[in-house]
């Protein structure tokens, strides 16, 4: 089972101007700890996988020390930073959009009930 949502995030350029980027959010009960975000821009798709709980924490306080960081800018806007070897990509997004998505994901798999089948994962990876 899954939860999917299409929305638009604002890409923040280094000069502070913004550009809309179509973004897909995907949560699958088979991978209960992760959220996948697909960013569509210029005919390309960049895919990032991040922790569901990191996103939930980032709704109210600074979260993430690594490649994914999220923090509130105001009560209605969040800042998402995606860090790669060469770039830091910054997005602004409405907190209500992420809240609704996460609420749906938590209804599908409530916190604390996540299960990960390591044997199934390893058999897929080691094929």
Explain the overall architecture:
By secondary structure, the chain is α+β, with helices and mostly antiparallel strands. The protein is 23% helix and 45% strand. It has helices at 52-58, 95-108, 118-125, and strands spanning 2-12, 18-28, 34-41, 44-51, 68-72, 77-83, 88-94. Strands 4-3-2-1-7-6-5 form a 7-stranded antiparallel beta sheet. The protein is globular, with a radius of gyration of 15 Å. The two termini are 24 Å apart. The mean pLDDT is 92.
Placed side by side, the strands forming the largest sheet appear as 4-3-2-1-7-6-5
Write the H/E string, N to C: EEEEHEEEHH
Number of strands: 7
Structural class: alpha+beta
Helix content: 10-25%
Descriptive terms for the model:
alpha+beta; 127 residues; 3 helices; seven-stranded antiparallel sheet; 23% helix
Summarize the structure in short.
The chain is α+β, with helices and mostly antiparallel strands. The chain has helices at 52-58, 95-108, 118-125; strands at 2-12, 18-28, 34-41, 44-51, 68-72, 77-83, 88-94. The protein contains three helices and seven strands; from the N terminus they run ββββαβββαα.
Task: Please give the structural blueprint.
Elements: E1 2-12, E2 18-28, E3 34-41, E4 44-51, H1 52-58, E5 68-72, E6 77-83, E7 88-94, H2 95-108, H3 118-125
Antiparallel strand pairs: 1-2, 1-7, 2-3, 3-4, 5-6, 6-7
